[in-house]
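It is worth pausing here to work through a concrete case rather than discussing structure prediction in the abstract. The textbook approach is simple: state the sequence, then state the predicted structure, then interpret. We follow exactly that order.
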Amino acid sequence: MPKIADLVFPAARRPARPYLTVVCMSDISPSAAPTAAPERPLPIRVLLGVAHRWPTWLGLAVMAQNAFGLNDGRPQALIVFLAALIYLGTALLGRPAVVWPLFGACVAGVAVLRLLDAEPWPALVGGGVCVAVLALAGGVARRPPLTALQLPAMLLFGGAAVVAVSLSPVAGSYLVAAALIGHAVQDVIVWRANQVVTRSLAEFCAVLDFTLGVAILVLV
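Step two, the predicted structure:
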């Protein structure tokens, strides 16, 4: 016998039927559909690509300035020494971002010494010794391998630069070229590892060191 509730509320006994909603694609607003980012014009893409490699162009510009009228490679020993000193100073501070300000300070210091008609080597060697001592005391040798490598690299490249200045023009030039190319190898390693210094400085230094080293071998 049916219950009173079943007679009064017959729909309560039937399970609810699922409803399927069909949406036509024409009903979707065009603004809601995903759109691909517009492709930049070719000249803009080329310009951005060139601008992205600004450390390379800067390195080539500095190389061209130093290679113009080059007949003795020994004065370029200064670049080898500064490169090793800047790397070691940045490793000592432990902050890759300071490398460009440190680079600017070193270049400005050398420029001031030359304006005063003073020989830069005594100040550079003295500064190199002080930074090396601070690096030893600061535990740079116990840091990650590539950072710790900057201490012997300073001794190797800095020592080669100092020795090259005292050699004959040909022998000194070859030693400077070898030191520049050797430091360029380290620049590439540092760039790939993205350690010690910023990649922009490593790229700039690699291009400058390698091309200037080759220029010395060709021109001297």
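Step three, interpretation. Residues 42-219 form one domain. The mean pLDDT is 86.
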